[in-house]
Amino acid sequence: MPITIPGTLKLSTKPTGEKPGALKTAIAAPGPLSVASTGSVDGDSVPLEASVLANRTAYYGYNWRPANAGEGASIANGAIVEGFLGCTQGGLVYIADDGTLTHTAPTNARPIGQAVRTTAIYFWVDPTPGTA
């Protein structure tokens, strides 16, 4: 069963893993972000784009709210995010090949967090680089 977002997500703890980064393209829904393999953004920010199979190993953090291109990402690393459906409490959370969240580990993937309640996920501050 996939992990879904039926409504609006909210932070229930403050992120401890703040990271600089700006969106290369607009993100209409919350989801995992990866470092963009091409392109740039203004300033010294890291260019970010939605995570999918092709860029999953460049996972940077979980963006918990929509944003426009060029805006800073709302990275929830080191925080608990509420509002999910389909979480198994205690289950590890992975990025599926299509960029959604899942408890089923895709090939050559490492977890990015853990479900702490049936509706909440703790996103780790630093998942193993290059293996999300």
Largest β sheet strand count, sense and barrel closure:
6 strands, antiparallel
Number of domains: 1
Estimated helix fraction: under 10%
Strand order of the largest sheet: 1-6-10-9-7-8
Number of helices: 0
Strand content: 25-35%
Uncertain runs are none
Strand segment tally: 10
| Amino-to-carboxy terminus distance | 19 Å
Silhouette: globular
**Roughly what is the average pLDDT, rounded to an integer?**
84
Radius of gyration: 13 Å
The computed structural class is mainly beta
Describe the structure.
The protein is mainly beta. The strands form two sheets. The chain has a six-stranded antiparallel beta sheet with strand order 1-6-10-9-7-8, with no helix packed on it. A four-stranded mixed beta sheet has the order 2-4-3-5, with no helix packed on it. The protein has strands at 10-11, 22-23, 31-35, 47-50, 59-63, 79-82, 92-95, 101-102, 113-117, 120-123. The chain has one domain. The mean pLDDT is 84.
Can you give me a brief rundown of this structure?
This protein is 0% helix and 28% strand.
List the topology elements.
Elements: E1 10-11, E2 22-23, E3 31-35, E4 47-50, E5 59-63, E6 79-82, E7 92-95, E8 101-102, E9 113-117, E10 120-123
Parallel strand pairs: 2-4
Antiparallel strand pairs: 1-6, 3-4, 3-5, 6-10, 7-8, 7-9, 9-10
Summary keywords:
single chain, 132 residues, mainly beta, six-stranded antiparallel sheet, 28% strand
